[in-house]
Design goal:
The protein is an alpha/beta fold and 213 residues long. It has 6 helices and 11 strands. Bound molecules: phosphoribosyl ATP (PRT) and zinc ion. Phosphoribosyl ATP binds next to helix 3, strand 9 and helix 5. GO terms for molecular function: ATP binding; ATP phosphoribosyltransferase activity; magnesium ion binding.
Length: 213
């Protein structure tokens, strides 16, 4: 069998549709059979793995997948040894700190000794350390935005896009920790043959992006 590249994409979620669209715009045809973990491209030496986004950096680091598409937020939080090879420009969002709307928040030091709920403990603790803030991080995996209203924490650190989730939970965004977008990641030591396929793919992605600008 000739060499091919394995691409990990999100099975279903906010990255899926734009990831698949980008691949199609690159002229790559494949059957995206619903619920199928694996599918092969018809006209490009690639195979797709549909996974949960949180698992993608680990699979790419292990070499189970050669490359993957994931949010930069997840890439940084999982802290896996992979290369960020190209920025894709979709699924843009920010990781922000938010507090109850009625709080008279003035500056970051107001969070000193406070409790903060998040699904991004690594990014948050690095940020707090950098700014010399000591706070109590509560890691929760979902529905972070309800933590203040149920009395679990004083603040949250979560992904924000339109801001309407914060709004409907009586919260206000007070600091942006970082801005994220979908990125293409790769295993650090691809074989020359697979690297060549990746280069070809990046070339096509750049052409698609250039045509849009
Ligand atoms: O099932 P799986 O684990 O694969 O998916 P997931 O549920 O963990 O992730 P998913 O599909 O929700 O998001 C995938 C990626 O999309 C994230 O890692 C981000 O990089 C990016 N992204 C872009 C977002 C958002 N926008 C976003 N708005 N991820 C999450 N949200 C959530 C946020 O957590 C909050 O609950 O949407 C809410 C806020 O949205 P607004 O518009 O109300 O501000
Ligand atoms: Zn996830």
């Amino acid at each position: 069998m000739s060499e091919m590249i394995r691409i990990a994409i999100q099975k279903s979620g906010r990255l899926s549709e734009d990831s698949l669209n980008l691949i199609r715009e690159c002229g790559i045809q494949f059957n995206n059979g619903t619920g199928k973990l694996k599918s092969e491209a018809a006209n490009f030496p690639a195979e797709f793995l549909s996974l949960r986004d949180d698992d993608i950096p680990g699979y790419v680091a292990d070499g189970v997948a050669d490359i993957g598409i994931v949010g930069e937020n997840v890439l940084i939080e999982t802290h896996q040894k992979v290369d960020l090879v190209h920025r894709l420009g979709f699924s843009k969002c920010r990781l922000s700190l938010a507090v109850p709307r009625g709080d008279d928040y003035r500056q970051l030091t107001d969070l000193h000794q406070k409790r903060i709920a998040t699904s991004y403990p690594r990014i948050l603790s690095n940020f707090l350390q950098e700014h010399k803030i000591e706070a109590d991080i509560h890691e929760i995996s979902g529905s972070v935005e309800i933590a203040p209203s149920i009395g679990l924490t004083d603040a949250i650190c979560d992904i924000v896009s339109s801001g309407s989730t914060l709004m409907s939970n009586g919260l206000k965004e007070v600091e942006v920790i970082f801005r994220s977008e979908a990125v293409l990641i790769a295993h650090p030591n691809l074989s020359p043959a697979r690297q060549q396929i990746l280069d070809k793919l990046i070339f096509r992605i750049k052409s698609v992006q250039a045509a849009k600008n």
